[in-house]
Amino acid sequence: MRRASTKALGLVACLAACLIGASPASAVDEFNKYDIESVSASLSDKQAGAHADMTLGFRLTATEEVPPRPYAFTRDIIFDLPPGVIGNPQRFQRCTLGELGPKPEESECPQDAQVGVTEVTLSGDVNGTLIEPIYNMVSPGGEVVARLGFFAGLYPTIVNVRVNPIDYSLEAAVEGASSAAGVIAANTTLWGVPAAESHDEFRLTPQEAIETKLPPGGRKSGQPEIPFLSNPTDCTLKREVSVTAISYQQPDVEVSRSAPFPPIGGCEKLVFKPSFTATPTNPEAFAPTGLDAVLTIPQDETPKGLATSTLKGAVVSLPQGMSINPAAGDGLEACSPEQVGFETTNQSHCPDGAKIGSAEIEVPALEATLNGSVYQRTPEPGHLFRFWLVTDEQGVHLKLPAEITTNPLTGQVTTVFNGIPSLGGNPQVPVEQIRLHVFGGPRAPLATPGCGTYQSRYEFTPWSGRPPATGDAPMQITTGCNKGGFSPQLQAGTQSSLGGSFSPFTMTLTRQDGEANPLSLSMHLPQGLLAKLAGVPLCPEPGASQGNCPAGSQVGQITAAAGVGGAPLWIPQPGKAPTAIYLSGPYKGAPYSLVVRVPAQAGPFDLGTVVTRAAISVDPNNSTATISTDPLPQILEGVPIAYRAVTAIVNRPDFILNPTDCDQKQIEAAVIAVGGAVANPAASFQATNCARLAYAPKLKLTLKGATRRSGHPALSAVLTQKPGQANNAKVSVQLPTSQFIDQDHINNPCTRVQFNAGACPPLSILGTAKATTPLLDQPLEGPVIFRSNGGERELPDIVADLKGGGLRVIQVGFVDSVPVKGTELARLRTRFLSVPDAPVSKITISLFGGKKRGLLENSRNLCKTNRKAKVSFTGQNGATQNYSPVIATGCGKSKKK
Q1: Which one of 3.90.1150.10, 2.60.40.2230, 3.40.50.300, 2.60.120.10 gives the CATH number of domain 489-691?
Q2: What is the pLDDT of residues 510-524, one digit of tens each?
Q3: Which one of 50, 411, 764, 797 is separated from 878 by 20 to 30 angstroms, measured CA to CA?
Q4: Which residue has the higher pLDDT, 19 or 297?
Q5: What is the DSSP annotation of 686-698?
Q6: Which SS3 state, helix, strand or coil, does residue 20 take?
Q7: Do the beta carbons of residue 125 and residue 141 sit within 8 Å?
Q8: Contact 52, 45 (CB under 8 A)
Q9: Which distant-in-sequence residues (6+ apart) come within 8 Å of 599 by Cβ?
């Protein structure tokens, strides 16, 4: 069946000779002998780009009778021309169907509409060979890009020229030819320059053709010498002309034959001098922008000149600093090859959401400007950013693919028009100008650099094989030049500030357009703002480094905005994969870490999953936490990530715990920018209603062992507290006057250097301590050490060095004596003045007894003295508890024995 074709530009070229019906052979059973006997093609000049006369011929198989007759009536005959053979009918007069007329004697086509002749051999009402004029006809539009007309003997015949959508070559077809004409053969010559004097002798009318009367002396053209045909501008291809014929008797049978097209040479003589401009639609620095790109290729249309080489490939690199704007992905759709109708005559059905620009193409061979659209192509692995240049006008179904590559280090954008793979380049069609408009607006696909003058680098390759045309197109960014600096803002806090209660925590870091991009973030939480790690399974390695964590490890999620302008892209988008924050174990020396997983998905793009780690370090002296991120990704798949906002939401139930101290505090951050600038934004934080919290800690003291004078008893102190109360801030314990420190046991305290190195002398270790907290799955345990304070106080300090669950807590007790009013006696006092604002259900401190290691010594028999201690507690909410518990001993047990 007839192949509907569609090609872009070209046009006419040829083909007219063609067609019509044939008288059938006498024997019906000989229809299958219907075939094409021969096909021929020739040029008057084989120079590339020359405006040569082209002659195409065919002959059908015919009977041997005299006169010969074809074996069947010809219904359709189609000439497929090779790529690069181009005609331009636009600058010539045209003949209408009415002027062509139904009969040769009535034909009134203008003489200057004649563009060639056909020598047609007939076997119908008119037998023999006739030389007929071929006219440039008015095109009906639609799929027909051009039309030729002539008489096959007595019968008007129309040749419709279409564009092949596969290789964008021309197809000329006679459809529904008159069966009465009896065409056996035709040799059609289309003139390269119809007004040339060499064609004067063949300017005739259809009636003169029937009468076989060529005008004596010929006729002059009234038109200037303008090229109608142009030879291809590629000298490497082996081309051929194919002819397909279909008969009325066998309409489902196509017969075809091909012939070599004359080889083309002399491509080195062709000129190719394109010019190019690229202008941002928005000249503002660090802002979203579209792009207006104009490619101009001057065409040589002089009759004795050579056609300009057609464009094979184009590469345009935008200036470094102009990059893809992530905001463009918000709501963007994509168009697949099936939707665009690639390599078919189907109309494009790309979704409107995939449209990112428009195009205007000036093709000399077409009657009007081709108006087209630019659509985002469906991404494929390794080919994320690409687009279609599409038009479905004037019988041209152009679906030209283009690739966009991005430098993975700098984000520089390069657009590559390498054409259609099966063609090895762009269609071989003369194009005078392409105007490409990429839409601007808040979600424009590009982002501008800072103010200045930049250059776009271009390289256009001709089909002629000559060196590419290269150059630079200047571009200026002239407004918004006052942007810069680095002053990100921080907002942070819990959703409910109720003291001592659990609440989700939210942190948002924002950055303005034009500021330096953040590289890393360190956030220091105030004392008392804690996390309950108990019951949370940690994300194990190596899954943590890849973001592959179990759901039970999730503690929150993240949202982020990236891009320039007022409408950045927010991740995650609706319907896309969610983000997640997981709790993981030790990382870079810190006991815990966060794993932040962000699927980089937007619109039709999937740039993979970004995994960022953040170490959680805990100050052992006050239990405050600092979260420090690894370097944030700055570019992904060649797309710079211009961070505008990052929000972390930690919302695991009963995970983040508010302080029980309602004093105003600060959540402090240190943000390092690309380039080294440092900003220290902070957010105020204050818990509320702390005074409502109960506060009733209990302390039990026990002296174990020797009760006699000069004995060295062991001491046990057990502090308990019910949940939901205010946490301790200060603890002071005064022992009765019966207890004092054995001076012989304080001569070998641990120095701070030794303590920091974990190398305290054994005799400096006084006992052990153990703390149980609902925030951890396991208790904190460690030694109680007599540590030198560098002379700040008379006596060394008692230090509990607790470890557990990867954490370390150091509690320092200041040791001194308090005079007893009205006596010469004194009480031994230990004060813990900086207790962390953290819930502790039980703390046990056990000091060794015995003569060798016992710190305490009895000044008299414990069973015969007052053993009341003085205890003072201060809660983080300011509440106090003061009482005098009796220190338990073994005195009663001894009497029972």
Answers
A1: 2.60.40.2230
A2: 999 889 999 999 999
A3: 797
A4: 297
A5: --B-GGGS----E
A6: coil
A7: no
A8: yes
A9: 571, 572, 576, 577, 578, 579, 606, 608, 609, 610
The answer to whether the bond into 572 is cis (omega within 30° of 0) is yes
Q: What is the DSSP letter of 479?
A: B
The Cα 322–Cα 262 span in angstroms is 47
Q: How far apart are CA 276 and CA 274, in angstroms?
A: 7
All residues at 6 or more sequence positions from 40 whose CB lies less than 8 Å from its CB, including other chains: 55, 56, 57, 58, 187, 259
The encoded tokens of residue 66 equal 């005299």
What tokens appear for 127 in the block? Answer: 């037998």
- Per-residue pLDDT averaged across 75-95, rounded? 95
Whether residue 11 has pLDDT greater than 50 = no
Of 72, 19, 423, 23, nearest to 244 by C-alpha is 19
The tokens 């102009």 sit on which residue? Answer: 322
Per residue in 322-332, pLDDT tens? 999 999 999 99
Tokens of 121: 């051999």
CATH topology for 270-477 is: Immunoglobulin-like (2.60.40)
Measured distance CA(312)–CA(462) in Å, rounded: 5
pLDDT higher than threshold 90 for residue 31: no
Length of the chain: 897
C-alpha span between 478 and 656 (Å, rounded)? 48
Quote the Cα angle for 673-676-680, to 5°: 60
- Hey, where are the domains in the chain? 28-260, 270-477, 489-691, 694-896
| 149 touches 137 (CB < 8 A) | yes
Nearest to 475 by CA among 497, 515, 446, 510: 446
Angle at 493 (CA atoms; ends 490, 497), nearest 5 degrees: 155
User: Which pLDDT belongs to residue 714?
Assistant: 94
Q: What is the pLDDT of residues 524-580, one digit of tens each?
A: 999 999 999 999 999 999 999 999 999 999 999 999 999 999 899 999 999 999 999
Helix, strand, coil % over all residues of the chain, rounded to 5: 10, 45, 50
Give, rounded to a whole angstrom, the gap between the first and last alpha carbons of the chain. Answer: 120
Contact 155, 178 (CB under 8 A): yes
Residue range 266-290: average pLDDT? 96
